[in-house]
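pipeline/complex-builder :: batch 7 item 3
reading input block
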Amino acid sequence: MIGHNGSVDMTASEPVGAVMVIGGGISGMRAALDLADSGYYVYLVEKTGAIGGAMPQYNKVFPTNDCSMCIIAPKLVECGRHANIRILTLGSVLDIAGRPGDFVVRVRQKPRYVDTEKCIACGQCSAHCPQSVDDPFSGHIAGRKAIYIKYPQAVPFKYQIDAEACLYLSQEGKCGVCAEICPPEAIRFDDRALEEEIRVGAVVMALGFQTFNPAVIKAWGYGVYPNVITSLQFERYLAPDGPTSGVLHRPSDGKPVRRIAFLQCIGSRDKHHCGNEYCSSVCCMYAIKEAVMVKEANPELEVTIFYTDIRTHGKEFDRYFERARSETGIRFVRSRIHGVEPRGTRGDLRLHYISVQGRQVEEIVDLVVLSVGLETADDMVSLADRIGIQMTPDRFAAISAFMPVHTSREGIFTCGAFNGPRDIPQSVIGGSAAAASVAVLLSGARHSLTRTASFPLEQDVRLREPRIGVFICHCGTNIAGVVDIEEVAAYAATLANVVSVERNLFTCAQDTQDIMGQQIRDRELNRIVVAACTPRTHEPLFRATLRSAGINEYLLEMANIRNQNAWVHGFDQQTATAKAKDLIRMAVAKVSGLRALHPLRIPITPSALVIGGGVAGMTAALNLALQGFDVHLVEKTGQLGGNALHLFQTWSGEHVPRYLDGLRSEVVNHPRIAVFYHSTVVEVAGHVGNFTTTLRGDSGRRKTVRHGVVLITTGAKRYIPEEFEYGKIPKVVASIEFDKLHMHNEARVARGTSFVFIQCVGSRNQERPYCSKSCCTHSIQSAIKLKKEAPSRRIYILYREIRTYGQRERLYNKARELGIVFINYELHGPPKLSRERDGVLVEVWDHVLHRPLQIQADVVILASATLASPDASDLANLFKLPLNADGFFQEAHAKLRPVEFHVDGVFVAGLAHYPKPLEESISQALAAAGKAGCLLARKEIALEAYVAQVDPGRCDGCGLCIEVCPYRAITLVEYEDEKGVVLKSVVIDQVLCKGCGICQGTCPKQGVDVAGFTCAQIEAQVDAALDDTVAEGT
Amino acid sequence: MIYEVKVNELAEEFGVHRNTIRNWINSGLLPAQEGPGRRYLIHWEDYKQLCEKYGREPRLIPESAAEEPVVSRTAVPVPAVRLGATAGLLATLPSQIDICQTCGSCAGACPIAGVDALDPRKIVRMAFLGMDEELLASDWPWKCTLCGKCEIVCPMHVEIVQLMHRIRARRDRATVPLPLQKGISTCLQTGNNLGIPREDFVALLQQLGKDLARSVCPGFVTPIDKTGARLLVTVNSKEPFAEPDNLTWWWRIFHAAGESWTISSENWEGVNWGLHAGDDSVMQTLARRMVDNVERLNCTALLLPECGHAYYATRYALERWFPAILQRLKIYSVFDLLLEYFNQGRIRVRPVSDKTVVTLHDSCNYGRKSLKTFGHGFFAEARTLVHSCCTKYVELVPDREENYCCGAGGGGWTSPFTAERVYHGRIKARQIRESGARLVVTSCQTCRDQLAQSLCREFNLNITVCYLWELVADCLVPTEQEQP
């Protein structure tokens, strides 16, 4: 019996506290990390020689334009060094036997031919290997050796041999030079495949995707004309660590590129040529991103994107699109290109298309980028078949919208693009959601198989002279492309106390962590300077490296020579190099004076506060309760259900009210969940692990609850249209109202023969430049239902872009098949409505015929926007959380931390984050619950050690700091000294203090210092900055 | 506003030859005044109208006109289309129109998209919106060559060609383009499109046979109405009418192969314009005549008519209306028959000249349309045959199912829309020029006429065009049995 969230009756026996995650892409990694962090031992099975999946191949990611490698590298390293994750590379799952809670998985690992224990990744083997083959990692635009590492930041950072390419292995003992040359004698030509049976309680399938191979459709000329490339190849051309170091040339002749055309929907929305009917969901955004990137680097380039519908439905996507269109000069043409033809023999390509106005246009371009779609690889389909899980007609895992990470086989979960094409944040959410669902199944086995990481004894550096190691990062070409690293390194070596300087391609890569540890031990370093990027993303990684090398993690200083230097002085290499030196000199000066710090450890209150009793809130609450944590669920109305109370079915046609009833009764009846109706949060005190929140009920009665984490699931509200004669003509209704009329078969619907839906009412305009994401699907579903009830009904959908992303595209196809008329009004302006006899006359222009159309409508349905909840700003103030420009909660990081905030212990899910359909809300709620569960599963948490400390000798209790402290962490106390004199001083709550330093700046007596940023340390840094013995510009 | 233009520039812009531009100017299609230095003076309005006619985005835009919004509600005073007033009858299946994504692939692929401000996407749209009357009145579906390029690129596989057929079929017969009407009625009345009397036809065939016997095929007698012959052969009426010698290429091949064959003295027409006119009953009648001949002469095999459309129409008609006869009658396409002779060693060839660069033009009917309707397109067969007859071979780009139409299909060669036919052919002409070929081989009589008689001249193509069977006949060498 499976309930909501998949709780399973585990009376049979104790479940196994280990989990297998199949697939080492971002989704699988996230699931593995969350599971390992919340008390489960994880086997991470990766098909290739290194984890990372598709992300390492990307140059940048949308919509943040973050360097992909920069944000994934810390996660790779975290997986690689996690005490409770075992990575099985070159692995494939043969079959799965057993039952939920106790599976036996047979895994086969292909031979690597390199002993990973011995390999030091020196690269000599690869340098001497005579055999070069096409490198799939680069999309075959570059070569690699038969012995290779998948990419420079690979985890595990160990070489592997491609048996098919290797001369020794494929040609009976020929060659073998790597074995001769390998210093640690790590080559093992006699390596054999290993089969292993692994006992786990649950399995997470994060099988990922492959990109569509456009060579199968001749018309694209892919594989025939060298200047036709895929978007993935284009990423590699743009990537600083790619084969061309980020410089774009025409592949055919190396000439500069002047005109680029992106062709959308290659291998997507194409029933005829490849059978992929679905929309791949990510291509519009990645094409815009690639176009923006290349255009920014080469402003004189002419870049055109040929599209059918621009599908920028995600958070901040529409803004990104609008910026690309209006500011970067990228041309968007609504026309699907039918094929690519060569012009002449020199590599020019001819595109022949029809303009929006219906006229022929011919263009010659240098480069055609095919925006290839995502699909499930054949071997993954057969794996799914072997395991016995159901698939959709589009060859993705079949999932229920209500259980978005559960496969059809109990105990086997799924996440990432294997659940349907999706972007990185959705995949990350899926990973966390799968982990949360596993945690419910295996809650009884938590911590039964994990080991605690042990760190070497920390050496005491107080009495030792500083011995500083400086690590300078190239960050691909992010830094090295601007700053003269060699010169900077030479300079760093001359600074006081510096005993070692290293340069690294990516200092955050696994191999560099090993080198750093080695250097600390070998050269007895006791302080480290990393000159690279921002501590915000990377400090935790380097701290962990210091810990495992046996020195205090706070003896680290980062000099941000990328964001604050290379990125802002891109056009002035000399200045950038000089500034890098300054920044490193300052960091060295500061690090010399750093002291070991030890974070405060505090116990956690193992309960959660969930604010908002919609589906997201209930899902999160139930998941946490089933994981074994107490939950306080706050709902401002007298009823649980939120916006879902207005929904009838999911996009896949599942019945929402029935689901909602079930979920509600589970929540209400769960002993660990306390529901507070008619309640709002009025006061918050405390911090991660220990919050005290005051709620106010409808009678004004206050109640205080204590909890360790907070989940914000406050939902959204709907837009009341002001346009299209809404409220003036009774036959014009909003979609939510129409659903009710439709359900009750009200006269207007029952007798209606002509229905007009108008999309984007209140969305995607100047005031709200975002897409409400679910309205296209919703209107199409209603239209299909109307049409099926009475095929003679005439139904028109007036739209701007149809955004039936992913497998929803089938609905759009179905609707057209039924004869529903779709009219794009964007090109000509909004439709006009007026009364006509007893109906409504809708006037609109046809986007194909360029002629005015008149439709006599019985009912006009407005697909109105989803707006941020008006309560959001109060909550944001209480918890000190940011909102985006549209009033939705702004998560910590759009890509990799989609349910967290920078404020620890607070999470977000559902419509409070951004408009989304039900299954995405559920998925995100599970992810938020999973993240919260990770925290609560720990007995205690270590707080940041950067907090203010009072020097009692200097503080005279003037109390100036008390006023300015934004966290109310400072209080005034009186005490008697030995002589009985009453003295005053302040004390600072070490938990409440966030180390912001305002007190330090305010104190006239230098009586307060923030650890790690003491006046003396900052002075040393300032002195170094102003050191006039350093000549300008050297 | 007056522009000074060079013929060259205009030709490049429209993708046509200089001669075509001069023709347009001479015929008044493009009013222009001759200026000094081989330049012409053209009014912006005239130029714009020419662009409109051929559906092209104007390249020269005067500054005053550039400000004008490209699409505006008020610019064009067109009456509104009232939707839902009448239900469209033209399209009956969702696969014909409903599933259209309006992505524009079809129109992008169509060489005459934009002509008369219409294109395949608009036609599909009009049918979808029930604008039947306008569609039936429009000439565009008759200017369309039914080549199916639009269909092959459609991501949703909308049946555009079928829709065009239906539009043609529903037009009042009196308004079907006159030459088509005339050909059909003559054929129905006389047994061939050109009304050649039986006696003349028989006399001609006999004379040709005698000539052949004297020249290269000693002992040859034209087998007219030979009962019990294995293979029945049809004739395209334009050959006895205009190019009778062309008939003998096949005869030489039959002679060399030792084939037992015959031509009927009546109802020998291979052409079937019922297909172009969208007239199923004509298609059926003409096919029945062929079946009758087969039965009368007791033949066991039929060489499907050579011309692309005729092959398609006959095969389609036989499969649809005469499935029974196909149980006992073996049907050959030109490729099947020639390959059979090759494979059985009944004919042998020696390549013509090793210097000439040869290319093959895939006929739409033998190629992508056959692939779609009958499940097989004759791409490989045609190449095998051409390869064995020549040594320097290049492909047109694109080729096979993606090939461009010659521009004269769908009855275009006979219909009155000459300007559009030539305009359509510009892409074919460009393909040929870019390939560098000097000899273009094709297996369809319409394609051959369009290439040899129209495009060569209009686009100054320095090429020779020949039939596949012409090439084979010219390369024939005596087989071992024949050698003394």
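note: The two ends of chain A are 72 Å apart (CA to CA).
queue -> next item
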